[in-house]
């Protein structure tokens, strides 16, 4: 029952040799969800042995280049690999036009269908759901329309314990037990007590991705109690005026959001290229919220383990 995040990129707009632009890969069950796709993301997917054949959904927070310039290259490579499965892309207005123009003038004919969904970045709403997860937008404050994404795993059914399963159970009775119900005889007595034949399902996991944004306390209620929060921390706290001027956040501001939202764990990233070492970023964040960690490219966070 997989729910794990791999960090692919931790840098910001100006390139540095030691960091790639923003990109995260979230695996839920057997499906891949890519959040942002900065330049070189496809190389990072290859480097960390993430199977693009499982990639089904792509979420772009905003249309600054360090968050989506890697997308056309990734789509082209998927096409060269003979992908035929549909792909869903969620992004602010304009991305569908950009990709369409790039495909047109490069004379690229995709073997697969792209379903574009335009995000509404000024409100929080249910953007998408499937059998495993719901995805809600998180309005952010930046120079261009921008929103983050909250992934919540849907509740799972209880598990039947095989060696206790009665031989005469009907399909409907199995369904009732998995739904947590007891099964009764015609006279009202308990025939099969749920807790004797099932075990509780795994607890549902949650992950919130908050990319480029001015410090914004209005998101606290949206991300409250999530297991893992990623929040950009472009600057150290001494550059708070610069963060405000550029609609970004500092380490302590990211940690304050985590603290007030009572999240399980915080990851900070989107580091300014001016910083060569990041120990101070971590120290500042932990002054406010102790369970803070640096985003490190290639690291995988098994979110379900955070809940144990």
What does this structure look like?
- The protein is α/β, with parallel strands linked by helices.
- Helices cover 24% and strands 26% of the residues.
- It has helices at residues 41-47, 71-80, 95-105, 171-178, 194-197, 220-223, 240-245, 251-261, 279-288, 303-306; strands at residues 3-9, 23-28, 31-35, 55-59, 87-91, 114-118, 126-129, 133-139, 147-153, 159-160, 183-184, 190-192, 198-199, 206-210, 228-232, 265-269, 292-294, 300-302.
- Homodimer.
- It holds the Pfam family Anti-Pycsar_Apyc1.
Topology (elements, then pairings):
Layout lengths: L2 E7 L13 E6 L2 E5 L5 H7 L7 E5 L11 H10 L6 E5 L3 H11 L8 E5 L7 E4 L3 E7 L7 E7 L5 E2 L10 H8 L4 E2 L5 E3 L1 H4 E2 L6 E5 L9 H4 L4 E5 L7 H6 L5 H11 L3 E5 L9 H10 L3 E3 L5 E3 H4 L2
Parallel strand pairs: 3-4, 4-5, 5-6, 14-15, 15-16, 16-17
Antiparallel strand pairs: 1-2, 1-18, 2-3, 7-8, 8-9, 9-14, 10-13, 11-12
């Amino acid at each position: 029952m997989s729910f794990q995040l791999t960090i692919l990129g931790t840098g910001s707009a100006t390139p540095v040799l030691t960091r790639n632009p923003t990109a995260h890969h979230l695996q839920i069950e057997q499906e891949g969800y890519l959040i942002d796709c900065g330049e070189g993301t496809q190389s990072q997917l290859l480097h960390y042995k993430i199977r693009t054949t499982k990639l089904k959904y792509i979420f772009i927070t905003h249309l600054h280049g360090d968050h989506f310039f890697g997308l056309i290259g990734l789509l082209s490579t998927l096409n060269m690999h003979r992908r035929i499965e549909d792909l869903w892309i969620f992004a602010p207005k304009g991305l569908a036009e950009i990709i369409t123009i790039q495909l047109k003038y490069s004379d690229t004919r995709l073997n697969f269908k792209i379903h574009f969904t335009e995000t509404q970045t000024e409100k929080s709403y249910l953007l998408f759901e499937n059998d495993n997860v719901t995805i809600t937008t998180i309005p952010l404050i930046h120079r261009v329309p921008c929103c983050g994404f909250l992934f919540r795993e849907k509740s799972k059914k209880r598990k039947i314990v095989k060696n206790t399963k009665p031989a005469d159970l009907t399909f409907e009775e199995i369904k009732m037990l998995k739904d947590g119900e007891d099964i009764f005889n015609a006279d009202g007595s308990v025939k099969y007590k749920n807790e004797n034949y099932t075990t509780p399902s795994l607890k549902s996991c949650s992950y919130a991705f908050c990319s480029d944004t001015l410090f914004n306390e209005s998101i606290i209620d949206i991300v409250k109690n999530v297991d893992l929060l990623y929040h950009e921390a472009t600057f150290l706290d001494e550059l708070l005026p610069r963060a405000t001027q550029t609609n970004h956040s500092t380490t302590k501001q990211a940690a304050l959001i985590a603290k007030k939202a009572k999240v399980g764990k915080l990851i900070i990233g989107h580091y300014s290229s001016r910083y060569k070492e990041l120990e101070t970023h971590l120290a500042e964040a932990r002054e406010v919220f102790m369970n803070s960690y640096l985003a490190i490219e290639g690291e995988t966070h098994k979110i379900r383990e955070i809940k144990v």
